[in-house]
C-alpha cells in the first residue's frame, strides 16, 4: 500500500521517557494499537476513563504495557508526542479538546497501523451494510486463496494483525468515527455503500459533517486506486457533486444500466470492468433482499478489480453465511419465527429489516436514540407491524412516532421481558423481530450483548 520510502519516512523513531505515545481507550482497537506501538519501539502508555475489561487488562499486563483505568492523568497524556484515540471517544471529550489545544496529533488506530503494512487495503464504509459487505468481500477473497485479513470495526484489531500477521490484503470495515481520525492513510479500493442520517449527535446534528466524514474513505487515493459507490443513493450522489476524485470510479445500481461497474439486468447482477465480465442470478445469492443485492454488487466489483475467477465469486456469493446479530434466524417456537437484528442501530437498518419481512411482525425496538427520525418507518410499520415492544429506558419518541400506526406499544426494560411480551402477542406464522433502530448502551454493554440476551431469552421460552 505504501512504498518503502514513504513507509520509512512515516515510521517514528522509538520514544523513550516522557513524551511517548499515549493510547486513549483500552478496547479492541486501543489494546491492539498499544501492542503494535510497543513492538515498534515506542514508549507506550494506555489510559481509559472507564473500567478496562478483564481480558484486555490481562493482555496489557502480559505485555508489560503501563496503563490506567477510571481516570485520565492529564500530565502524562498531555506530554505525548502523538495520541491514538479509540473511535468511541468523541471529539467533545475534555481530554481530546485539551490535546487539540496543545497541538498534539490525535489519530486513529487504523491511521497508526497503516504506517507498518504494505498490504493492499479494501475499505468499506456506509451507514448500512458495512459489516455484511466487509464479511462477504473477505469471504470471496479468502475462498480465492488470497492471503487476506479482516479488521476495522470487526474481528481482531487492524493494529494487532499488522503486528502479528503478514497479510497481502486487508478488508477493513471503516466507521465514520474511524475515518474522522485518519489523515495519511490510503485505501486502495474504497467502497461507499450509502449515506443516511446516523450518529448525528457526534456531528453537531449536521448531515453535511457526517457526509464529509464518509467521503474521507477516498482521501489520498491516486489514479491507480478505485472508488466503488452506489449510483442510486441520493446523499452519495449529492456529496460527490462538490468533490473531486482521482481514483477510478466504479458505480453500482439496480435502477439503471452501468457501463463500467455493476447493474441489474432483469434478475441478474452484471459486472463489467476493463474486459472483466461477471453475471449471476440474484436467486442464487446467499443473501436475499434488495439491500443485499447492493452489498453483493459492491463485493463482486472488488473481486473483479482483483481479477478473481467467476466460478470462485459465484460459489462464494452462494454459500456465504451472514454475520451474527444481522437478520439472524434464532428459531421457531409454536410456529412463531424469532429474528435477531440487534446490529440495526439506526432507523435505516430497521427499514431494511422490515422491508425484507414476509409475515406479520411484532417489532422489538428502542434503546439510546441518536436523534432518530422515525418517519421513514411509518408506512412499513402500518403495513407489517402488529405491535411494538419498546426495549429501552426512554421510549417517549417511539410512542409518539408510531401511536397512529399500531394499536399496541408497550415498554420493557430487559431482553427477557421484551421476548416474553412479544411471544404472548404473536400468533402462529408471525415473526418476532428485534431490530432496535437505536444504540444499546442504556441497558446493554453493546449490540452483541443485546443480541445474545435476546437469543437466550428466546431459548428460555
UniProtKB/TrEMBL annotation:
Domain of life: Bacteria
GO molecular function: ATP binding; UDP-N-acetylmuramoylalanine-D-glutamate ligase activity
Start and end residues of each Mur ligase C-terminal domain: 325-438
Keyword flag Ligase: yes
Pathway info: Cell wall biogenesis; peptidoglycan biosynthesis
Task performed by this protein: Cell wall formation. Catalyzes the addition of glutamate to the nucleotide precursor UDP-N-acetylmuramoyl-L-alanine (UMA).
PANTHER family reported for this sequence: UDP-N-ACETYLMURAMOYLALANINE--D-GLUTAMATE LIGASE
Name of the protein this chain belongs to: UDP-N-acetylmuramoylalanine--D-glutamate ligase
Organism: Mucilaginibacter mallensis
Lineage of the species this protein comes from: Bacteria, Pseudomonadati, Bacteroidota, Sphingobacteriia, Sphingobacteriales
Record gene name: murD
Amino acid at each position: 500500500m505504501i512504498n518503502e520510502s514513504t513507509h520509512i519516512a512515516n515510521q517514528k523513531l522509538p520514544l523513550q521517557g516522557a513524551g511517548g505515545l499515549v493510547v486513549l481507550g483500552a478496547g479492541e482497537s486501543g489494546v491492539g494499537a498499544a501492542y503494535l506501538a510497543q513492538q515498534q519501539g515506542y514508549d507506550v502508555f494506555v489510559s481509559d476513563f472507564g473500567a478496562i475489561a478483564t481480558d484486555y487488562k490481562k493482555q496489557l499486563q502480559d505485555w508489560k504495557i503501563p496503563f490506567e483505568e477510571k481516570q485520565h492523568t492529564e500530565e502524562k497524556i498531555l506530554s505525548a508526542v502523538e495520541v491514538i484515540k479509540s473511535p468511541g471517544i468523541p471529539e467533545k471529550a475534555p481530554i481530546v479538546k485539551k490535546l487539540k489545544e496543545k497541538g498534539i496529533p490525535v489519530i486513529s488506530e487504523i491511521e497508526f497501523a497503516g504506517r507498518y503494512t504494505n498490504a493492499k487495503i479494501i475499505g468499506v464504509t456506509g451507514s448500512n451494510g458495512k459489516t455484511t459487505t466487509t464479511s462477504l468481500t473477505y469471504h470471496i477473497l479468502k475462498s480465492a486463496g488470497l492471503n487476506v485479513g479482516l479488521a476495522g470495526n470487526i474481528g481482531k484489531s487492524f493494529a494487532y494483525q499488522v503486528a502479528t500477521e503478514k497479510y497481502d490484503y486487508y478488508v477493513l470495515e471503516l466507521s465514520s468515527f474511524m475515518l474522522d481520525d485518519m489523515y495519511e492513510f490510503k485505501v486502495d479500493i474504497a467502497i461507499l455503500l450509502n449515506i443516511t442520517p446516523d450518529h448525528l449527535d457526534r456531528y453537531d446534528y449536521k448531515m453535511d459533517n457526517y457526509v464529509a466524514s464518509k467521503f474521507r474513505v477516498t482521501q489520498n487515493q491516486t489514479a491507480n486506486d478505485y472508488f466503488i459507490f452506489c449510483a442510486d443513493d441520493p446523499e452519495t450522489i449529492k456529496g460527490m457533486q462538490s468533490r473531486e476524485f482521482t481514483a477510478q470510479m466504479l458505480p453500482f445500481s439496480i435502477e439503471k444500466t452501468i457501463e463500467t461497474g455493476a447493474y441489474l439486468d432483469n434478475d441478474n447482477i452484471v459486472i463489467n470492468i476493463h474486459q472483466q465480465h461477471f453475471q449471476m442470478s440474484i436467486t442464487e445469492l446467499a443473501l436475499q433482499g434488495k439491500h443485499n443485492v447492493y452489498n453483493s454488487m459492491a463485493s463482486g466489483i472488488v473481486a473483479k478489480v482483483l481479477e478473481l475467477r467467476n466460478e470462485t465469486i459465484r460459489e462464494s456469493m452462494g454459500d456465504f453465511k451472514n454475520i451474527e446479530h444481522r437478520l439472524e434466524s434464532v428459531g421457531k417456537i409454536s410456529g412463531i419465527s424469532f429474528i435477531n437484528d440487534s446490529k440495526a442501530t439506526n432507523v435505516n437498518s430497521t427499514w431494511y429489516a422490515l422491508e425484507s419481512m414476509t409475515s406479520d411482525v411484532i417489532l422489538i425496538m428502542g434503546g439510546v436514540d441518536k436523534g432518530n427520525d422515525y418517519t421513514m418507518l411509518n408506512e412499513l410499520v402500518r403495513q407489517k407491524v402488529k405491535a411494538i415492544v419498546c426495549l429501552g429506558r426512554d421510549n417517549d419518541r417511539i410512542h409518539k412516532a408510531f401511536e397512529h400506526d399500531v394499536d399496541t406499544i408497550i415498554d420493557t426494560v430487559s431482553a427477557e421481558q421484551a421476548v416474553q411480551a412479544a411471544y404472548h402477542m404473536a400468533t402462529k406464522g408471525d415473526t418476532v423481530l428485534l431490530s432496535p433502530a437505536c444504540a444499546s448502551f442504556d441497558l446493554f454493554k453493546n449490540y452483541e450483548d443485546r443480541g445474545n440476551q435476546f437469543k437466550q431469552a428466546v431459548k428460555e421460552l
